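Appendix B. Worked example

We walk through a single record from start to finish. Start with the input: the chain for Methylenetetrahydrofolate--tRNA-(uracil-5-)-methyltransferase TrmFO, Salinihabitans flavidus, length 437.
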Amino acid sequence: MAGSEAAWQAAQMGVEVVIHEMRPTVGTFAHKTGDLAEMVCSNSFRSDDDEQNAVGQLHWEMRAADGLIMQTADQHRLPAGGALAVDRDPFARTVTQTLKSHPRIRVEYGEISHLPEGGQWIFATGPLTSPALGEAIRAETGAAALAFFDAIAPIVYAESIDMDTAWLQSRYDKGETEDERRAYINCPMTRDDYEAFIDALLAADKTEFHEGETAKYFDGCLPIEVMAERGRETLRHGPMKPVGLTNPHKPDQKPYAVVQLRRDNALGTLYNIVGFQTKMKYGAQTDVFRMIPGLHEARFARLGGIHRNTFLNSPTLLDGQMRLRSRPNIRFAGQVTGVEGYVESAAMGLLAGRMAAAELLGREVPAPPQSTAMGAMVTHITGGADAKTFQPMNVNFGLFPPVEGLKGGRRGRKDRYKAYTDRAKSDWRDWLDAFDG
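Next comes the structure step. The output line below is what the pipeline stores for this chain.
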């Protein structure tokens, strides 16, 4: 995501770009193709609400900056209530074709295993940086790479879901069209169903870590069994919360918990289980997930998995232009910088691409103001965060400077969020005008 967006932005500014892609020559266990911008986890870009949600504001800023990732996501959009979900395979193919057909972009396949001395480089290697390059980065930075484990949710064949038990509905009927309001499949649980499910989840065989490895999970992508270990009611107040939904099969009976599945492709043949990242072994996954009402005979197109992600301690290593302090011809972008999520990763690619191109063109433009979603993210990773406790972070309003004179707490939240996004839009337009001017 980040590398694709960086290449697009730099080329659009008039700079010649070479994309180095190691896949499919050198693969990873999570990727299946050699396409650029391949999605390996969820197919959701999350909320598209640019008035009340920080990630929705980030969408808005990327669209305003002629972002390739958002253009392509809009082109391959799937119904998902108030969220932006995409058809992952055609999305990646379109990004790849668009970049390959750009007159100022060339794609070369093969692994880069060292940090080059000359030229302007952006490393957007993501969470699955190759071992050789990871060693080169560690040797240069003199710091041990931080690591956490990211888990992948399973995908179910739609035809195997029992729709006499499950039903189609977005939470609170959110969405402007009928497709949007019916974007999720909902599987209801009674209290007995839920308690039995939690018991099975806690008892299931899990993937063990290798000796000497330590796991630091990112809280936004916790394995479901780790959430269950934090308390039996945790899931019922998290991804399995039963609010905003009415079961048309039993309208007078409120479910004790609900499992939601989100459409994963344009055909509507695949659905992923929302929030069900897991490190259970494959056999255990099928046994436990088939306990969910409506999924008793479920067939899985992909089971969940777990992989190790690496990221830099960016507050100590990167300057405000996203350059490696010890090697300023090298920038980093994307998840390797300590942002979390497709959109956040692509946004950091957008900034890195623009900043690198501006430098090559003899200009140096300041980072966007912290009052914008992109400015909030880049400020956080390049010095706003505490380096001692630095962890991957999604964009959120907690990273934005407060707007003076607004009421705090939950009651004032709607007005406060609208003030944040109004200010961000104005400041982002001003920054873009100054950058492009």
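Two observations about the output. Residues 152-308 form a domain with the Elongation Factor Tu (Ef-tu); domain 3 fold (CATH 2.40.30.260). The chain has a mean pLDDT of 91.
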